[in-house]
Amino acid sequence: MNAARKDINWPVILAVGAVLSVALSVGTPDPTDENIGNWFFAKTFFDDFKFITRAKAPLYQVYLTLFTWLPYPAVIVVERIVSTFLCFVAVVWLMGTLFDWRVGLFALVMTAPDVLQVVPGAQAFAFALTCIALTIRIRDPFPRTSAISASYALLFTASFLLRSNYLFALLIVAAWDVWNVWRPGAWRDVIAAARPIRRHWTLIAAGLAVLVVVANQSPQRWNNYQLMDETWVRYSGQVSSTLSQAISYYYREQHPEVAGDGFDSYFMHEKLFGNAETVIDMVRANPVLFVKHFARNLQAMVTSGVSMTALGQTVYNLTTYGRTSYEQTPKSLGKLDHRIVSVAFAFLFGLMFLFMAYRFRLTRDRREALVFFLGVAATAVIGGMLVQGYVVRLLYGFYCVFMLMIAFYTEWLLDKFKGSARWSWAGLVLAGVMALSLSQGGWARPEFE
Q1: Residue 19: helix, strand or coil by DSSP?
Q2: 139-165: pLDDT as tens digits
Q3: Is the bond preceding residue 120 a cis peptide, omega within 30 degrees?
């Protein structure tokens, strides 16, 4: 199955990355509300050396301080170029380690606008650190203890200083490692290999960095997950605020009469959940609303996941003209309900992923990659289910999985059609069609009625 791997041609890789980073970043729009918070706290960091809340990427905040001396709008464009290039190098290092470097580069270029540039920018860095963590585990047949520790340090940093939903990726990788040592006597081997403690300096440094951030929080009243004054709200904590805001937003969509200052976040929360402050209290106050919320998000996530590919987007446009309800698509070909398309193609993509997973089981490095990318996919599933199933920044992990699938099927098709020049060209054409089908789908917001 595997095409013959070649050493990564870094001059070519870096040249492509530089051109791609500039091409994607020129004309970069102004930062959105997500990135504005990081830029704001990056500016104030030099005044008090205090950090933004851990859930809003304090490491990204510190990183942005490197660019604050530049004038506007150069500061936005330069930061995007540098950030895109850094993430490109991290991701292509992994892809060139798992596959022939040309296949890995091809897959990344095909998905670059979606994988490398996302709001908030901290999410691309979290994925980049995850890629580095995986690469240092698989580049050697028998990774050293220090390499394993460093990979956990990177995952820990991504989870606690860049994007909190990457905690699920960390937990899945940890569960995989625990499973692999769960045999008689294996724990003693692990404990013996863990000594001396200096081997784990990277993990210790990551833990100390988190402690420094937690102990030096900015007193600014906008320093919270919603980046707004929350001294007057009823809920408390990141998850509670996220659920309250998301469910209130859906409620307003379903009840247009609910508008105006009389139904702001405070009163909407009071209307839906009473005086509940924690997630558990909110569920107890209105369990039915939570069930409806998760059901709607699941439907939206399926449709949005399919629409993240060019194949899904094309079929939606040909059959439903806007991906809305059956009644609202009188001009569609056969009035095909978009939910049928969503389920059918989600099933197809699921089978393709399972086939890839089946082939990945054959080698250690690809088994490790499968576990890591399942963790990345979990960040998308959890984010989409909890908040909103059609928000690109929450479903970002699906783009990363599609990138991996493009590389795998490109390699697989080229291997199946190798031989004569005619068949090789057929393999190239099919690989190109497959790559185009699984990438560059744009974004579509589904509606359910």
Answers
A1: helix
A2: 876 677 788 889 999 999 999 999 888
A3: yes
Cα first-last separation, the chain: 45
Q: How many angstroms separate the CA atoms of 202 and 147, rounded? A: 9
Q: What is residue 329's predicted lDDT score, i.e. its pLDDT?
A: 44
Please list, residue by residue across 165-179, b when 16 or more beta carbons sit within 10 angstroms of its beta carbon and e when fewer do: bbbbbbebbeebbee
What is the distance between the alpha carbons of residues 299 and 223, in angstroms, rounded to a whole number? 33
What is the rounded distance in angstroms from the CA atom of residue 160 to the CA atom of residue 138? 24
Q: 342-355 burial, b if ≥16 CB within 10 A, otherwise e? A: beebbeebeebbee
Please return the burial class of 44, using the count of CB atoms within 10 Å of its CB with bins 0-12, 13-18 and 19+: middle
- Residue 353's identity, in one-letter code, is F
Spell out the residues 6+ positions from residue 238 whose beta carbon is closer than 8 angstroms to its own: 55, 164, 225
Residue pLDDT, tens place only, 215-261:
888 877 777 776 666 666 677 777 788 888 888 877 777 776 666 54
Task: Give backbone dihedrals phi and psi of 284, rounded to 5 degrees, phi first.
Answer: -65, -35
Whole-Å CA distances, 208 to 159, 182, 326: 14, 29, 55
Q: How far is CA 429 from CA 108, 314, 418, 436, in A?
A: 18, 19, 12, 11
Q: Is the peptide bond before 196 cis (omega within 30 degrees of 0)?
A: yes
Residue 156: closest CA among 145, 143, 167: 167
Minimal CA–CA distance to 48: which of 216, 209, 229?
216
Token pair 């580095």: residue: 132
Report how far residue 152's alpha carbon sits from residue 272's, in angstroms, rounded to the nearest whole number: 40
Find the mean pLDDT for residues 328-332. 45
Distance CA 136, CA 220 (A): 39
Angle, CA 351 vertex, CA 374 and CA 401 arms, to 5°: 35
With a pLDDT cut of 70, the percent of the chain lying above it is 81
Which has the closest alpha carbon to 139: 199, 100, 94?
94
pLDDT bracket for residue 439 (50, 70, 90) = confident
Query: Per the confidence metrics, is the pTM higher than 0.85?
Result: yes
CA angle (280 as vertex; 279, 284 as ends), nearest 5: 115
Within 8 A by CB and 6+ apart from 53, the residues are 217, 223, 224, 225
Nearest partner of 236 among 202, 280, 206, judged by Cα:
280
Tokens 């009071």 belong to residue:
270
What is 211-233 written as a DSSP string?
HHHHHTB---TT-STTSS--TT-
